[in-house]
């Protein structure tokens, strides 16, 4: 029997990206497995920021309503198992190993028929469909990996499509305008299937509306003006929704981050479009009970990690901290392919007490000297320190810290690293 470590090593040897095969190639593999994805009622989620949180909020509400859920998300922070959940419980090592062995068998058969090799994400999607289709699942929540139009998850048959906030990210693949990126995300919209989306004033929603109209899909937009923050405490936010489609008050998210209000509200609207009979009490309970790691997550007292990794996500962090009455330390690391100069320009407007620059344990980690220079240009007189690895930076920040809050920010990879070794510190 294969061990988890062996499975993890084999999966990690598969190129994350590579020669892009067509969706018909993956579909042919799914055909060999009798299309397990067709056995699931899918809620399909795309967008730039907030996909994981919106997925988790929908999952929590549905479980509170008594439904059995499957949840497929990416990336993972520590273990691959995080990507595959049934009723929010991570699938076991054994379930993943069995699914991987099955996929390998199908890959041998497929390559004998002349099919191309599957990519890393396609394999994980295939594994998820094999696992979930064998369970008594009421709803399967699928988060896209990248984009939407050509994403592996688009081969599913959704009962609802959800599009979260859209901003600049992966521009080399998705396009360098909001409209182009929105068109890629809107590629998840299917004929006649309802769409729930954030209605932002950046040009994205008109693209979504146009695509929905072409597909005869009813579309429901959520505007930020329809949300009211009633009270913000240390780690909770009370808010209400007053949209043309649905009204509810006295909702509470357990988070420091204001951006979770929008994510929770989008999830609420999505559930009400799909299941109008779900009660307000169930919605309130589902929202307040949601837990999602790596998003303004407090891993120890006054120590937070957040996977914000593009300018749009960093703007949301800025909005969450700009009215904070606490002083903050920042630990920052970012991938080299991100627009980190723009991220730092936004972060530089916050009054950090000290900044710690480090590198992600990844070949894609940005050069720390270049990152430090950007911070120097955007912050006036703030002490900035540079470290070769995240653990040293984290331990130093903890030692320096007196009464301040510490935020570890810039990448989900960093969030995963910090969470991993924090278990040995706290």
Automatic annotation (TrEMBL):
It comes from the Bacteria. Residues 294-402 form the Mur ligase C-terminal domain. It catalyses: (6S)-5,6,7,8-tetrahydrofolyl-(gamma-L-Glu)(n) + L-glutamate + ATP = (6S)-5,6,7,8-tetrahydrofolyl-(gamma-L-Glu)(n+1) + ADP + phosphate + H(+). It is an enzyme of class 6 (ligase). The keyword Plastid does not apply. Transmembrane segments: none annotated. Residues 45-270 form the Mur ligase central domain. SUPFAM superfamilies: MurD-like peptide ligases, catalytic domain, MurD-like peptide ligases, peptide-binding domain. Keywords: ATP-binding, Ligase, Magnesium, Metal-binding, Nucleotide-binding. The keyword Transmembrane helix does not apply. Its EC number is 6.3.2.17. Belongs to the folylpolyglutamate synthase family. NCBIfam families: folC. This is tetrahydrofolate synthase. It comes from Anaerobutyricum soehngenii.
């Amino acid at each position: 029997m294969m061990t988890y470590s062996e499975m993890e090593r084999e999966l990690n040897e598969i190129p994350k990206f590579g020669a892009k095969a067509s969706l018909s190639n993956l579909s042919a593999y799914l055909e060999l497995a009798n299309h397990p994805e067709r056995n699931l009622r899918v809620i399909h989620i795309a967008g730039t920021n907030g996909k994981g949180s919106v997925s988790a909020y929908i999952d929590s509400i549905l479980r509170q309503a008594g439904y059995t859920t499957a949840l497929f998300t990416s990336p993972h922070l520590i273990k691959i198992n995080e990507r595959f959940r049934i009723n929010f419980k991570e699938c076991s090592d054994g379930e993943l190993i069995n699914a991987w062995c099955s996929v390998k068998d199908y890959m041998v058969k497929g390559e004998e028929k002349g099919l191309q090799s599957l990519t890393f994400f396609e394999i994980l999607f295939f594994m998820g469909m094999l696992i979930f289709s064998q369970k008594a699942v009421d709803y399967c929540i699928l988060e896209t990996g990248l984009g939407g139009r050509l994403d592996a998850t688009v081969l599913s048959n959704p009962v609802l499509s959800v599009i979260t906030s859209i901003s600049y990210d992966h521009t080399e693949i998705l396009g360098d305008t909001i409209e182009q990126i929105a068109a890629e995300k809107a590629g998840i919209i299917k004929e006649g299937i309802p769409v729930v989306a954030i209605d932002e004033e950046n040009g994205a929603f008109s693209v979504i509306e146009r695509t929905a109209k072409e597909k005869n899909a009813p579309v429901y937009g959520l505007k930020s003006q329809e949300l009211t923050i009633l009270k913000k405490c240390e780690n909770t936010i009370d808010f209400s929704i007053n949209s043309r489609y649905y009204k509810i008050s006295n909702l509470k998210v357990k988070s420091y981050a204001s951006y979770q209000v929008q994510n929770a509200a989008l999830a609420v609207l999505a559930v009400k479009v799909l299941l109008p009979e779900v009660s307000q009490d169930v919605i309130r309970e589902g929202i307040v009970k949601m837990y999602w790691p790596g998003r303004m997550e407090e891993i120890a007292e006054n120590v937070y990690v957040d996977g914000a990794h593009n300018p749009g996500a960093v703007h949301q962090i800025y909005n969450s901290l700009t009215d904070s009455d606490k002083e903050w330390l920042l630990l920052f690391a970012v991938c080299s392919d991100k627009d980190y100069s723009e991220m730092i320009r936004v972060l530089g407007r916050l009054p950090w007490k000290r900044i710690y620059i480090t590198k992600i344990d990844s070949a894609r980690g940005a050069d720390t000297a270049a990152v430090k220079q950007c911070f120097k240009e955007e912050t006036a007189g703030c002490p900035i320190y540079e470290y070769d690895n995240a653990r040293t930076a984290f331990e130093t920040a903890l030692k320096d810290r007196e009464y301040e809050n510490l935020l570890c920010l810039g990448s989900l990879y960093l969030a995963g690293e910090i969470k991993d070794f924090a278990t040995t510190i706290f």
